[in-house]
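Support request, please re-run this one:
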Amino acid sequence: MVVTCVHVFVKPEHVDDFIAATKANHTGSVQEPANIRFDFLQDPEDPTKFMIYEAYETTEGVAAHKQTEHYLIWRETVAPWMAQPRQGKPYNVLAP
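Re-run finished. Output below.
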């Protein structure tokens, strides 16, 4: 399993737009064959901070995700709404 946590900081005036665009990306992502989880989280103390928890079966699944239409649309759509570049951090899975 390959896990990446993506931290996103959104300009306050685009929070609602970002949520809508990311929910659309989520809908497509969870339908990908190699997807295990795709969680979209918002910081309860700062509504402009988000985390996306992505789990795929393989690195090939991750690469395939980055070529999907829903991801490419999301990436281009949300880029100008970010207060700073998104930060993806891969993690080693220890359990389960």
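The two ends are 10 Å apart (CA to CA). The domain at 2-91 is CATH 3.30.70.100 (Alpha-Beta Plaits).
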